[in-house]
Amino acid sequence: MTFALFLGAGNIIFPPQVGQGAGAEFWPAALGFLATGVGMPLAGIVAVAVIGGGLDKITSPLPKWAAAAFGVAIYLSIGPMFAIPRTGTVAFEMGMRPFINMTPQSGLALHSVLFFGVATLIALSPGKLMDVVGKWLTPLLIALLALIATFTIINPQGPLGPVSPEWAESPFMTGFQQGYLTMDALASMVFGILIVSAIKARGVTATADVTRYTLWAGAIAAICLAAVYLPLTYMGATSHALVTEAGKGELIPVYVEALFGDAGKLILALVITLACLTTAVGLLTSCGEFFNRLLPAVPYRALVVVMAIASALIANLGLAALISISIPVLVTLYPLVLVLTLLSYLRPHLHDAPRVFTWSLGLTLLVSLLDGFEASGIDTLMAISHRIEPLLPLASMNLGWLAPALMGLIIGLLTSRREQSNLDPELIRNS
């Protein structure tokens, strides 16, 4: 179930594009992508296991307004603003479009209604999530992905291609930042609580046992994700004879059709639809539960339906528009999520977690906003970023936030009020 929840639209479309750009630099680019596409989601699940709760509990050391604002930003990003609509758009563009004999606009509109209708029906019964996703959809998805991966490895459609100019200087760090686009690190803390709930629903209640099973689920999902990403990245790296970089949006359909002939269209449609559907269900469930806690007067089921309708409408903007709009938001949020995850590991041993969290995340936010300005494409905002970011250590490697985060950690530790120790014995045991 955990693997299927993570494996969605971004996990399918971005690894081949990484390979297409990296070409002969396939390995460093792939490892960079794995660092953020696999390592960070696993770190988020581990944080959930250590803390013993989801995003609400992980952000509890922050001021209430900051924790609420951060939670809303995360859930809107992985919810009806970007990630959920993207599942429907990708499922249509890369899976079902060849089978719908309508204009692209009309086809996408019809597909959005059907796709989000099915996702909503499953999400309305969150207690059945493990049965529907884990027992039925995931095995079929894994079998189809294994088929594509095997044929890609034993029958590549060309040699490793040339390295694109933007990848030549630092393929690892470029792949590292491309991993942001999967949104999985943002979703890890959200899905983490679904995993914990599913484990408890099976009668496992002891804290140590819940933690252990959560870690196992995260580890298995991480291994499976890596097993998907590497062949897909290799697919892109060996695709230059079939697809130019300008047409990389058609990379996967063209490549799979070259491998399997006409049957490739059906195989790809099943893979993409299943991957996107399972993720859409998980995101609708998670977001519905979060906003139900935030707005208890609004029933969970009503929230799921409203978000599904909003997602269906936004999906009709098209894939390219959704990706371009989401990039500035993602490069702003990802450093915050990474720092928050790392602080969660330290939290059981901090005497004044609120002060440390506030300083570290506050300084990180200032720099991550500059990254968002740079990615926005707005001249005024980009000019601000260009003036300040060169002054930051490691900014050329897209790690300008690291030094401010460490500075905030040090300031928080030095100014901690030790007489008001908040060490939590249960957190220490979990860690």
List keywords for this structure.
Amino acid/polyamine transporter I, Branched-chain amino acid transport system carrier protein, 2 domains, transmembrane helix, mainly alpha, cell membrane, globular
Describe this structure in words.
- The protein is an all-alpha fold and 431 residues long.
- The chain has helices spanning 2-6, 9-22, 26-51, 55-58, 64-81, 83-96, 104-123, 129-154, 165-168, 171-178, 184-201, 207-237, 251-260, 263-294, 300-315, 319-346, 353-376, 379-388, 402-414, 425-430.
- The longest helix has 32 residues, at 263-294.
- It is globular and about 65 Å long.
- The model has no long low-confidence stretch (mean pLDDT 86).
- Its main location: membrane.
- One of its GO terms (biological process) is L-leucine transport.
